[in-house]
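Example record for the data management plan.
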Amino acid sequence: MTQSTDTFESALEAYRQACLLVIDLFQAEADALASGSLDQLKGFAERRKAALVRLEGAQKATRETAPRPISETQRTRIQGVADLIQRAVRLDRQNEQGWLRRQLMPPGMVPNSATRNPARIRSIYGFPGGSKGL
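Corresponding structural encoding:
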Protein backbone atom coordinates (compact mmCIF):
# COMPACT_ATOMS: atom_id res chain seq x y z
CA MET A 1 0.00 0.00 0.00
CA THR A 2 1.08 3.51 -0.66
CA GLN A 3 1.15 6.32 1.88
CA SER A 4 -1.98 7.78 0.25
CA THR A 5 -3.84 4.47 0.45
CA ASP A 6 -2.80 3.97 4.08
CA THR A 7 -4.07 7.45 4.94
CA PHE A 8 -7.37 6.76 3.19
CA GLU A 9 -7.76 3.38 4.91
CA SER A 10 -7.15 5.02 8.30
CA ALA A 11 -9.64 7.78 7.53
CA LEU A 12 -12.22 5.27 6.34
CA GLU A 13 -11.79 3.21 9.51
CA ALA A 14 -12.20 6.36 11.63
CA TYR A 15 -15.37 7.11 9.66
CA ARG A 16 -16.66 3.58 10.28
CA GLN A 17 -15.93 3.92 14.00
CA ALA A 18 -17.72 7.29 14.11
CA CYS A 19 -20.74 5.67 12.42
CA LEU A 20 -20.74 2.88 14.99
CA LEU A 21 -20.58 5.45 17.80
CA VAL A 22 -23.61 7.26 16.35
CA ILE A 23 -25.51 3.98 15.98
CA ASP A 24 -24.71 3.03 19.59
CA LEU A 25 -25.92 6.43 20.75
CA PHE A 26 -29.14 6.23 18.72
CA GLN A 27 -29.73 2.67 19.95
CA ALA A 28 -29.36 3.83 23.56
CA GLU A 29 -31.93 6.54 22.79
CA ALA A 30 -34.27 3.94 21.27
CA ASP A 31 -33.87 1.67 24.29
CA ALA A 32 -34.62 4.54 26.69
CA LEU A 33 -37.69 5.54 24.68
CA ALA A 34 -38.93 1.94 24.51
CA SER A 35 -38.50 1.39 28.24
CA GLY A 36 -39.91 4.78 29.19
CA SER A 37 -36.71 5.56 31.13
CA LEU A 38 -36.24 9.03 29.74
CA ASP A 39 -34.00 9.97 32.67
CA GLN A 40 -31.34 7.85 30.91
CA LEU A 41 -31.27 10.52 28.21
CA LYS A 42 -29.83 13.27 30.41
CA GLY A 43 -27.01 14.88 28.46
CA PHE A 44 -28.07 13.04 25.32
CA ALA A 45 -28.22 16.19 23.18
CA GLU A 46 -24.61 17.03 24.01
CA ARG A 47 -23.41 13.47 23.32
CA ARG A 48 -25.35 13.47 20.05
CA LYS A 49 -23.83 16.76 18.97
CA ALA A 50 -20.30 15.57 19.81
CA ALA A 51 -20.85 12.30 17.95
CA LEU A 52 -22.18 14.09 14.87
CA VAL A 53 -19.24 16.53 14.90
CA ARG A 54 -16.89 13.53 15.04
CA LEU A 55 -18.81 11.88 12.21
CA GLU A 56 -18.60 15.02 10.08
CA GLY A 57 -14.85 15.34 10.65
CA ALA A 58 -14.27 11.70 9.79
CA GLN A 59 -16.37 12.04 6.65
CA LYS A 60 -14.40 15.09 5.56
CA ALA A 61 -11.07 13.33 6.15
CA THR A 62 -12.27 10.33 4.15
CA ARG A 63 -13.28 12.53 1.23
CA GLU A 64 -10.01 14.44 1.30
CA THR A 65 -7.85 11.31 1.29
CA ALA A 66 -9.88 9.20 -1.17
CA PRO A 67 -7.65 7.81 -3.91
CA ARG A 68 -8.61 8.00 -7.55
CA PRO A 69 -9.59 5.52 -8.82
CA ILE A 70 -11.11 3.66 -5.91
CA SER A 71 -10.36 -0.05 -5.88
CA GLU A 72 -13.08 -2.67 -5.67
CA THR A 73 -12.00 -3.57 -2.12
CA GLN A 74 -12.21 0.06 -1.07
CA ARG A 75 -15.57 0.38 -2.80
CA THR A 76 -16.87 -2.54 -0.73
CA ARG A 77 -15.63 -0.94 2.50
CA ILE A 78 -17.17 2.40 1.51
CA GLN A 79 -20.47 0.64 0.88
CA GLY A 80 -20.22 -0.88 4.35
CA VAL A 81 -19.90 2.61 5.84
CA ALA A 82 -22.82 3.82 3.71
CA ASP A 83 -24.88 0.93 5.07
CA LEU A 84 -24.01 2.00 8.62
CA ILE A 85 -25.13 5.53 7.81
CA GLN A 86 -28.46 4.25 6.51
CA ARG A 87 -28.85 2.17 9.68
CA ALA A 88 -28.24 5.28 11.79
CA VAL A 89 -30.77 7.26 9.75
CA ARG A 90 -33.40 4.53 10.25
CA LEU A 91 -32.77 4.47 14.00
CA ASP A 92 -32.98 8.25 14.16
CA ARG A 93 -36.32 8.20 12.32
CA GLN A 94 -37.66 5.56 14.71
CA ASN A 95 -36.53 7.66 17.65
CA GLU A 96 -38.27 10.73 16.23
CA GLN A 97 -41.46 8.70 16.04
CA GLY A 98 -40.97 7.62 19.66
CA TRP A 99 -40.59 11.23 20.78
CA LEU A 100 -43.68 12.22 18.80
CA ARG A 101 -45.76 9.33 20.22
CA ARG A 102 -44.90 10.50 23.71
CA GLN A 103 -45.70 14.08 22.68
CA LEU A 104 -42.22 15.16 23.75
CA MET A 105 -41.35 16.71 20.39
CA PRO A 106 -43.45 19.27 18.59
CA PRO A 107 -44.39 17.96 15.12
CA GLY A 108 -42.92 21.10 13.55
CA MET A 109 -39.43 20.07 14.69
CA VAL A 110 -39.41 16.93 12.54
CA PRO A 111 -37.59 17.54 9.24
CA ASN A 112 -39.77 17.70 6.16
CA SER A 113 -39.93 14.82 3.70
CA ALA A 114 -37.35 16.38 1.39
CA THR A 115 -34.68 15.91 4.05
CA ARG A 116 -35.74 12.30 4.60
CA ASN A 117 -34.95 11.25 1.05
CA PRO A 118 -32.34 8.42 1.19
CA ALA A 119 -30.65 9.69 -1.99
CA ARG A 120 -30.27 13.10 -0.35
CA ILE A 121 -28.87 11.50 2.80
CA ARG A 122 -26.35 9.57 0.68
CA SER A 123 -25.32 12.75 -1.12
CA ILE A 124 -24.87 14.61 2.19
CA TYR A 125 -22.37 11.96 3.21
CA GLY A 126 -20.56 12.12 -0.10
CA PHE A 127 -22.01 9.12 -1.87
CA PRO A 128 -23.90 9.12 -5.18
CA GLY A 129 -27.71 8.97 -4.96
CA GLY A 130 -28.01 5.46 -6.35
CA SER A 131 -26.76 2.24 -4.82
CA LYS A 132 -24.26 1.69 -7.63
CA GLY A 133 -21.24 3.63 -8.68
CA LEU A 134 -19.53 4.47 -5.44
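Summary line stored alongside the record: The chain is about 70% helix and 0% strand.
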